[in-house]
Prior knowledge:
The protein has helices spanning 5-20, 24-40, 47-64, 88-97, 105-114, 116-121, 126-145, 160-185. It is 62% helix and 0% strand. It is elongated. It has 8 helices and no strands. Among the domains are: 1-35; 100-181. By secondary structure, it is mainly α.
Amino acid sequence: xxxxxxxxxxxxxxxxxxxxxxxxxxxxxxxxxxxxxxxxxxxxxxxxxxxxxxxxxxxxxxxxxxxxxxxxxxxxxxxxxxxxxxxxxxxxxxxxxxxxxxxxxxxxxxxxxxxxxxxxxxxxxxxxxxxxxxxxxxxxxxxxxxxxxxxxxxxxxxxxxxxxxxxxxxxxxxxxxxxxxxxxxxxxxxxxxxxxxx
Length: 198
């Protein structure tokens, strides 16, 4: 049965240190005794030996200063709250990576419903608005028909003609506001005569 390579390495270092200091006979005797002890015990370390090894490695790293100046040192941990959330790491990954399109269709449709006017206002043609509203309504109906479970679909469908009229109204209001602000910035300034000295 193969022994643990860490024990072999420790034995080798001990023998080398003993030879350097002139204790060759003692090193060979101690290595023979260690071999006999290791034959009596199992070759793999138990959980307590592993824990001691890990703890000593951590303490050595602290003494060397490996943990000094880590990012977030002295600051509270983010995301700690009163309740336990088993999916905290998923939520943090979605936030940091800015992932979209994840989750059940019911939740995706709720988010899209909340951002509906912004998405429609980004479109330039009336035909594009009609196609977007029809696609949105189709996805709402499909989500209501699915029997896979999950949160209920409470997102309402949109009236195509009403959304087109609201899109036109918002577009005209933005154009009027832009024209008014342009007229204010282009107000005529009193002309100074070039021959008059200040």
